[in-house]
Design goal:
- The protein is of the alpha+beta class.
- The protein has 1 helix and 3 strands; from the N terminus they run βαββ.
- Helix 1 links the parallel strand 1 and strand 2.
- 5% of the residues are buried.
């Protein structure tokens, strides 16, 4: 599985990277995942102040959900 992790308005932290990897490993145990793109974002003026966005690529027909 190819994994891309980006940080927006945050400094990268090893603990965050490990947590993302652990969660993706768990999901990969449930279904095949070809690639994962993860964005961790801090929005100081927004609510909620933190946001995680994940895009998973799995084999098979395309599907999009929010």
């Amino acid at each position: 599985m190819k994994t891309t992790l980006r940080y927006l308005s945050l400094n990268a932290q090893a603990t965050w990277h490990r947590q993302v990897e652990e969660q993706l490993k768990h999901l990969h145990g449930l279904t095949a995942i070809t690639s994962a793109e993860v964005v961790l974002e801090h929005q100081p003026e927004g609510k909620p102040a933190f946001r995680v966005q994940v895009r998973l690529e799995v084999p098979g027909p395309g599907m999009h959900t929010k």
